[in-house]
What we know:
Blueprint: E1 16-20, H1 27-39, E2 44-47, H2 57-68, E3 71-74, E4 77-78, H3 84-97, E5 102-107, H4 113-119, H5 127-145, E6 152-156, H6 159-168, E7 171-174, H7 182-190, E8 199-203, E9 206-207, E10 210-211, H8 222-227, E11 233-234, H9 238-252, E12 254-260, H10 268-274
Parallel strand pairs: 1-2, 1-12, 2-3, 3-5, 4-5, 5-6, 6-7, 7-8, 8-12, 9-11
Antiparallel strand pairs: 9-10
Amino acid sequence: xxxxxxxxxxxxxxxxxxxxxxxxxxxxxxxxxxxxxxxxxxxxxxxxxxxxxxxxxxxxxxxxxxxxxxxxxxxxxxxxxxxxxxxxxxxxxxxxxxxxxxxxxxxxxxxxxxxxxxxxxxxxxxxxxxxxxxxxxxxxxxxxxxxxxxxxxxxxxxxxxxxxxxxxxxxxxxxxxxxxxxxxxxxxxxxxxxxxxxxxxxxxxxxxxxxxxxxxxxxxxxxxxxxxxxxxxxxxxxxxxxxxxxxxxxxxxxxxxxxxxxxxxxxxxxxxxxxxx
Length: 277
C-alpha cells in the first residue's frame, strides 16, 4: 500500500479504466465500438489530440457521450497547439453539454511536437511557457466552471510538471518514455508528493504483441519493453493482467488505467473483475 507524506498508510483509489479510441474506421462503426466500450463497463472513452490525423476531440467525444452514454475525455490536449482561454472554453462547454461527464486531459506535448508546431507555422514554446499555458488553461476553466468542477487530468514526466500537477490537477497521469524501466517509473511515481490524495493514472500502449494506435509509435520495440519489465506493457491474458495491475497499485497507488481500443473487447473480463474494487 502507498503512504502519505508523513509515512502513514493511504487507502488506494478504486480501479477504473479508460479506452483511448481514435477514429480509425467509418463513424457508424466507431459509434458501435463506443457502445461496446460502455457496455463492457469502462469508465471513460478518451480521444487523442492529433491535428489533421484525427477529428477535433470535442466533436468526436460528443458523439460518444450521446450515443453510448459514457463518460468522455481528452487524452490529452496538447497545450502548445492551443490558446488557454480557447481550451478552457471548449472543456467547460463539454462539461455543460455532457452534464458533467467530461474530464479534461492536458499535457505539455508529446515527443516530436516541436516539428509539428514548426510545420504549422506556430511558435515552439519553452518548457516553462508550456507549463504556464497549462496553469492558465486550468485557471480559466475553473473560472468558467464556477461551482461545477471539470476534472482535470494532467500528463507529467519531469519534476516541474509533477509539482504543477500536484497543485492544480485532479488526476495525475504518469507518462513514460519507451526506454524507462519498471524500477525507474515506480520510483518516480512513489516520489510524487500527493498531499491532496489525487487519483493517479497511467496509459498502457502495448498489450501482448499489440501496439495501440496513437498511444505509442507503431515501430515500438515490444521485446525491449518486456526486457525492461516496462509498465507500458501488459500481458494479453486478462487474469494475468489483472494480477499485474493489482501489483502496480500496491507499489505506486495508480488506479486509473487507460488501454487502446484494440484491446477493449479482450480486456472486458479484467474490467468486470477490477472496476470499483
